[in-house]
Each structure stands twice: as structure tokens, then as C-alpha cells.
Amino acid sequence: MLVLTRRLKESIMIGDDIEISILSIEGDQVKLGISAPKNVDIHRKEIYLSIQQENSSATQTESSAIEILSNFFKKQ
């Protein structure tokens, strides 16, 4: 992990087209601004993990469902 120190109104560049700026600091909260191309998805980590979990759940098929479909097509 790379650790960088930035002050208010300073930025970090990732590659040529992603910029992360420090917009404000209030107590223990830091407000970030992220400029990136529209094709780059940006999510808070908890939202990203939730999306990954939902995607994983959606791809898992119960074996009973597969058996039911298999039997359905065998009858036809």
C-alpha cells in the first residue's frame, strides 16, 4: 500500500486520467473529490463489497433448480 500525505486542496493522480482531490477536512472526516472517465466505476468500499456479494449470489444456482430444468427438457 502506498501512503501519501496531502493537504487541503491538494491532489493525487492515478494514471493519466484519475485525479483525487482533498476538498475539505472536518474533524475525523475527509471529503474527497474524484475526477475520472465515465467508464470507471467509483464506489465506497462497503457498496463495492455489497455489489460483489450480490453478483456472487446471483451466479450460484441451486442443484435442485438445475435438476428440475434438466427433467423439464428431457420430457420434451
UniProtKB/TrEMBL annotation:
Compartments where found: Cytoplasm
Q: For this UniProt record, give its keywords in alphabetical order, as a comma-separated list.
A: Bacterial flagellum biogenesis, Cytoplasm, Repressor, RNA-binding, Translation regulation
Principal localization?
cytoplasm
Pfam families, sorted: CsrA (PF02599)
Q: List, alphabetically, the PANTHER family matched.
A: CARBON STORAGE REGULATOR
Protein purpose: A translational regulator that binds mRNA to regulate translation initiation and/or mRNA stability. Usually binds in the 5'-UTR at or near the Shine-Dalgarno sequence preventing ribosome-binding, thus repressing translation. Its main target seems to be the major flagellin gene, while its function is anatagonized by FliW.
- Family under the similarity heading: Belongs to the CsrA/RsmA family.
The UniProt entry, under HAMAP family, shows: CsrA (MF_00167)
Subunit-level organization? Homodimer; the beta-strands of each monomer intercalate to form a hydrophobic core, while the alpha-helices form wings that extend away from the core.
Q: What is this protein called?
A: Translational regulator CsrA
Organism equals: Sporosarcina globispora
